[in-house]
Amino acid sequence: MRDKGFHAFSLVTGSCHELVASSDASLLVDCGLFQGEDETGNRFDQLQVDFDISRIKALVVTHVHIDHIGRLPYLLAAGFTGPILCSQPSAHLLPLVIEDALRIGFTRDQQLIERFLGQVQKQLVPLGYKSWYPLVDTAELGMKVKLKRAGHILGSCYVEVALNYKQEKRKERVVFSGDLGAPWSPLLPAPQSPYQCDTLVLESTYGDRLHQHRRDRAKRLQQAIEKALINGGTVMIPAFSIGRTQELLYELEGLAHDSKGLWKNLEIIVDSPLASRFTQVYRTLKPYWDAEAQRRLRAGRHPLDFENLYTVNSHEEHENTVAYLARSGRPAVVIAASGMCAGGRIVNYLKALLGDERHQVLFVGYQASGTPGRKIQKYGPSGGWVEMDGERYTIRAGIDTLSGYSAHADQKDLLNFIKRMRRWPQQVRLVHGQQEAREALKGKIEELYRQHPVSRRGLRSHVEVLL
């Protein structure tokens, strides 16, 4: 973008991107929290907002996962008073995430939390999908943004930015992918590519691998659960409170509806007050569900509220549930946060059950390097150990990973996001992925352009891919 700039403050987690349109106008896309190995050095230093906020005209939130909005309290504390743009579903979910983040990492003072949430609500600007929102309109510069469905979690979006340099008579289109979802994800419509763009800022979480087909992953989910049921054990599924939990419930309702025998009295337990609150909000946002979910509703089924679904709320109830499952051998499926086993109630289940071979740990989401989840995933199959809260725990439980349940697009999906544009980008910046994933995707994108030197509009295609 010539003398203009793009700043990325993101590794795999901690997404935060600034599009500098001019010396006094920029756009911030996400302001997330670092996790796993990305969380290095002094954690307090990483939380600080050490970039100039005076020129930022707005913050756009692509979705409400903590690695995309976790530093919002620090952004506001630094003095940001501009609009916080997000989709309408995200506007319902964001205050819940921020309230939880404040309690864990900022303060437990309820008055302070309510005051902060009030400030967030004042700045929050919910936008409908596919509509332009003007940010800057001066004699020199026009800048507007549009949100489109990203299919990652409910309310997720990718962001189109239209820039008009009026005196130069030059227009540019920049797209920030946010986190793109995989096609055929439960509850969510698949993302559709933009018509065109000049610069694409593209996530690369699974840029080096392919997911299983949904039919295959559902079959493997059923097999993993039935194995534990036969053994008289518990299936522990670490899952983020928003997105993955609701998608799993949807799939489990389908399996329980279609299966008999072992599934008849199976308890499916959601042990997360936050996940329960998110699930309630998901239920109120049924108009944003996809066509398949709408058909289930019309058939009288309740994908997120079925007969053998139980929720655990109080801490006392949580402790009793852990102890009961450890001693009873009653088959159950437990879904609990955090998704990378870095904290939350899943840790207590792991401590109590990892050493017993009757049980099963089922990973259905990305495990960042340095997290306990990645270590269990890596060392568990060979009978290794993992350290949690300063103690070592031997891993005798079965370990399985279903990559097909990732809410992220895989390599093929990321390439299709480019291929399905009418005019392909001239520059692609790869973010939000491990180095090996970005390098693998870079090679595939360059190969794509070599194979298709002419775009669908008949224009010559070339690309600069930046890591």
In short:
This protein has helices spanning 43-47, 66-69, 72-77, 88-105, 110-123, 214-231, 244-258, 273-284, 291-298, 315-328, 346-353, 372-379, 411-419, 435-451; strands at residues 5-8, 17-22, 25-29, 56-60, 84-87, 124-127, 132-137, 141-149, 157-165, 170-176, 199-203, 234-238, 267-271, 309-312, 332-336, 360-363, 385-388, 391-394, 398-401, 427-431, 464-466.
Output the keywords.
single chain, 467 residues, 2 domains, Rossmann fold, 14 helices
Structural class label = alpha/beta
CATH homologous superfamily identity of the largest domain = Ribonuclease Z/Hydroxyacylglutathione hydrolase-like
Mean pLDDT: 88
Largest sheet: spatial strand order: 7-8-9-10-11-20-21
The global form is globular
Helical percentage:
25-40%
Report the total helices: 14
Which range does the strand content fall in?
Answer: 15-25%
Which class of the largest domain in CATH terms? Alpha Beta
Rg to the nearest angstrom? 22 Å
| Regions with little confidence, pLDDT below 50 for 5+ residues | 8-13, 36-46
Largest sheet: 7 strands, mixed
